[in-house]
Design a protein that fits this description.
CATH class of the largest domain: Alpha Beta
Order of helices and strands: HHHEEEHEHHEHHHH
Radius of gyration: 28 Å
CATH architecture of the largest domain: 2-Layer Sandwich
Distance between the termini: 58 Å
Number of strands: 5
Helix content: 40-55%
Strand order of the largest sheet: 3-2-1-4-5
CATH superfamily of the largest domain: Ribonuclease H-like superfamily/Ribonuclease H
Number of domains: 3
Largest sheet: 5 strands, mixed
Number of helices: 10
CATH topology of the largest domain: Nucleotidyltransferase, domain 5
Strand content: 5-15%
Structural class: alpha/beta
């Protein structure tokens, strides 16, 4: 509870708080225990904009992913400014397996040139062109005009990267990038409106490195996207489970020792009570 009240941990969900404590070696308890303790201390609250799922979208069949850079998803999101009707645009490319933000940029325009720059930066960041053609990722995107332009299609064809399209008006066909864009805008430090492009670029140049290297993502067993991208997820999760099991065994041993001590201390008292009862019967 003291950890949850500290400023640097105050905005963490109870599961993220528990995993952070495990990794720091502060305590080892389950998600449900952390939830129960925070709830009893009135430290649980709803946060963010909650929107019910409409239930009408059917997700496309996707091939199973076994590692990073097998499928990328990318999209563009509006960023409000202080002038009504004027928007900046956030371009984001995401690795679907690890949820790592591969590349991002902010622009005043929605254009194929900006989209191409985003994707080429991702290719460079992940050294994709050094991979054999059959090992390069497929890419899924919406049906915006920037995604369907001939330069973008030709770029994917030249790099032997299949391009998949989500169905019209079906956000759940491209859910991972949509989810991250929504998460970005619910972050406590998100300013809601931007004065200029440089301000927005600075904001996201801080956010995405933090997201990649520090954010504990629930969908990938509460490791960071970068850790999962590097293949470290199973190792980290196994270590946490071992720490939790060791802590459970330690608590059981401590409780067993306490019970033995209590039983040992109670034996003389039980004998005295028996003697008193015997004497009382004799006197009668």
């Amino acid at each position: 509870m003291h950890m949850a009240k500290k400023e640097e941990y105050a905005d963490l969900a109870h599961r993220i708080l528990a995993v952070t404590a495990w990794d720091l070696g502060i305590f080892f308890v389950s998600f449900s225990s952390v939830y129960r303790i925070l709830l009893s201390a009135n430290l649980m609250t709803m946060w963010g904009t909650q929107r019910p799922h409409n239930g009408r979208s059917i997700p496309p069949v996707r091939k199973e992913l076994t590692g990073p850079n097998q499928r990328w998803c990318w999209g563009i999101s509006y960023l409000p400014t202080y002038e009504k009707g004027l928007f900046l645009y956030l371009y984001l490319a995401l690795d679907e397996y690890s949820r790592k933000a591969i590349s991002w940029l902010v622009s005043w325009h929605q254009s194929a040139e900006e989209a191409r720059y985003l994707l080429e930066e991702g290719l460079i960041n992940e050294n994709i062109l050094d991979l054999p053609e059959h090992q390069r990722p497929e890419v899924i995107n919406d049906r915006g005009r920037q995604m369907k332009t001939k330069p973008i299609k030709r770029m994917f064809e030249d790099h032997h990267m299949p391009q998949l399209f989500a169905r019209p008006q079906t956000p759940n066909d491209n859910p991972f990038v949509e989810s991250l864009l929504s998460t970005v805008k619910r972050a406590p430090e998100y300013p809601v409106r931007f004065l200029e492009r440089e301000q927005a670029a600075e904001c996201f140049n801080r956010y995405f490195p933090w997201y990649n290297t520090e954010h504990l993502y629930s969908g990938i067993d509460y490791v960071t996207p970068e850790q999962y991208h590097q293949g470290l997820g199973d190792q980290i999760v196994a270590r946490r489970k071992a720490d939790l099991n060791n802590q459970r065994r330690f608590r059981k041993e401590v409780n067993r020792q306490k019970q033995n001590i209590l039983t040992k201390d109670m034996n003389p008292l039980i004998l005295n009570l028996n003697q008193i009862s015997t004497c009382s019967v004799i006197n009668l």
